[in-house]
Amino acid sequence: MSMLLDERRESILKIVENKGFVSLVDLMDSVGASESTIRRDLEYLDGIGQIRRTRGGAAYSGESLSTFEDRSFMSSRQKRQIAQAVANMISPGEAVLMDGGTTTLEVARQLAGKQLQVVTNSLPIANLLVNQPEIDLMLIGGFLFPKTGVALGKTAVESLKSVHVRRLIISVGGITEDGLYNSNMLLVETEQQMFEAAEEVIVVTDSTKFGHSALAYLCPLDTVDHIVVDDGITEEWKDVIRKAGIELTVVET
Amino acid sequence: MSMLLDERRESILKIVENKGFVSLVDLMDSVGASESTIRRDLEYLDGIGQIRRTRGGAAYSGESLSTFEDRSFMSSRQKRQIAQAVANMISPGEAVLMDGGTTTLEVARQLAGKQLQVVTNSLPIANLLVNQPEIDLMLIGGFLFPKTGVALGKTAVESLKSVHVRRLIISVGGITEDGLYNSNMLLVETEQQMFEAAEEVIVVTDSTKFGHSALAYLCPLDTVDHIVVDDGITEEWKDVIRKAGIELTVVET
DNA sequence: ATTGTTTCTGAAAGATTTTGATGGTATTTT
DNA sequence: AAAATACCATCAAAATCTTTCAGAAACAAT
User: Fold this and answer.
1) pLDDT (tens digit, 9 = 90+) per residue, A198-224?
2) Which residues pair with B54 in a beta bridge?
3) Cβ of A40 < 7 Å from strand D?
4) Which of A131, A146, A158 is closest, CB to CB, to B146?
5) Do the Cβ atoms of A193 and A157 come closer than 8 Å?
6) Total beta-carbon pairs less than 8 A apart between chain A and chain B
7) In whole angstroms, what is the distance from residue A155 CA to residue B127 CA?
């Protein structure tokens, strides 16, 4: 009863999708292939972003039926590597607050399978994590913005007031020596409340954002604890960041 | 039993379409041709895009039976007609509060395109409506439940306290003369707060729910203003509903 | 009917990919 | 620290694919 390669992978994907998480041994049983083969299949499926490989098995991270995936589907290798770096900082059992945005979405994807408490105002992130059995998911309500699918406004701010987490993961539209910027007043307002809720602030961004401001001022540099960025960042900016007392992680690409 | 070329290829195509995946050896058997011939046929069919060649055989490349769509599109004609009836009651510009559930999701689908304000604690409904330009969408936050994707708990209840809408559309797990039931304590708790937020309560359900209770008691009958149900409902139950002063809409199927 | 031409078929050899196993390394648990 | 578990790199065997070629079948023209 030798299965075709694609058939087997499809079958694995379905199982993972269905159960949320499956152990490698279980998969060996259910599809009747060797450990090596399953490993290779998981590696492949992880490579194309359909599942998230975890120690001992795999978790589902495929695209749910939301409208946002198209954009994030072209998650560049860069973005993915940044996301990977951030995900590696998160320890099991932690409580994490996640802002909207394509990079943070990618982080969420990399978090699949970990045991965590996640709080978010982002619909795409919620979609991604809602069926992860290991993840306790709390949604921040508010007015939903069509373009980005994040909940903002008075309700969101109010809800955030009763939230306390270890880490906040946030993305920005621009960074100058004066601080961080984002594109939308309402967004900034909500994000400012997020700062209050978190012990540590991690900013994910790509190197092109440095030196550019944007419509709405978010916060001064010293609000941030940690910045994760690709290796396109200049030496000058590295200096600025470090002088501001911010930990800097540069991801090699 | 020598087959004509086109006939054979047609036959292969049918088999592949039917099974989704077929191995080369299987095809050799069922078509009665040599390995080489089948190979060449597959190559051809792949060339014209009718199938996808895979190692060891072929896969159907037509409409992707991509697990997701099928599930949510599996709404019966009944459900859809109920949903249509409810959607027709909603006037432009109204504010509507929508509970989770497959029937209410179908209602949401029918609401698309209308100019409305929608408040919901259901992730699927939010997904559906978030990109409708005519619809102002407000999301109720809370702990997200994996199976159903609805936000519940203290946060949800608190958020609902500052909501006021014209109509609430809600689904139930069971209806008896004593009132309405649902399957989950937390769900019921949240739904009870929803009653407070709405001027008028519309219940959508199918006729099989009458006479059955469920785990958690939701409310007495007189909390409800309007019930929409399929025509499987018995005359006795019609009487009960009407005597309770509830408007009843029976959808013909 | 016969011949020549073209297309299709089946078989075999050699190249490529996939697979399962093994032993060593890293990580987690006890 | 030791034991248990999971991971990774490597390799030979197995399965599958491609290429090639000669014979068979179909076809057209004489």
Assistant:
1) 999 999 998 999 998 888 999 999 999
2) B57
3) no
4) A131
5) yes
6) 109
7) 19
**Is there contact between B56 and strand D, defined as CB under 7 Å from any strand atom?**
yes
Q: Which residues of A touch B (CB under 8 A)?
A: 2, 4-7, 10, 14, 17, 20, 64-67, 121, 123, 126-127, 130-133, 136-144, 146, 149, 151, 155-156, 158-159, 162
The tokens describing A143, both together, are: 């007015």
A143 contacts in chain B (CB < 8 Å)? 136-139
Tokens 């599809």 label which residue? A31
CB contact under 8 A, B127 and A17: no
Print burial letters for A59-97: b (CB count within 10 Å at least 16), e (below 16): bbbbbbebebbeebeebeebbbbbbebbbebbeeebbbb
A233 in Cβ contact with A207 (< 8 Å): yes
Tens of pLDDT, residues B161-196:
999 999 999 999 899 999 999 988 899 999 999 999
**What's the rounded Cα separation, in Å, for the pair B212 and A147?**
43
pTM over 0.70: yes
Structure tokens at A185: 């007043």
Going from the C-alpha of B98 to that of each of A9, A135, B190, B204, the distances in angstroms are 38, 26, 12, 11
Report the nucleotide nearest the CA of residue A56, measured to C1': D6
Comparing CA positions, the residue from B13, B82, B71, B77 lying closest to residue B42 is B13
- The dihedral through the CA atoms of A91, B124, B202, B171 has a sign that is negative
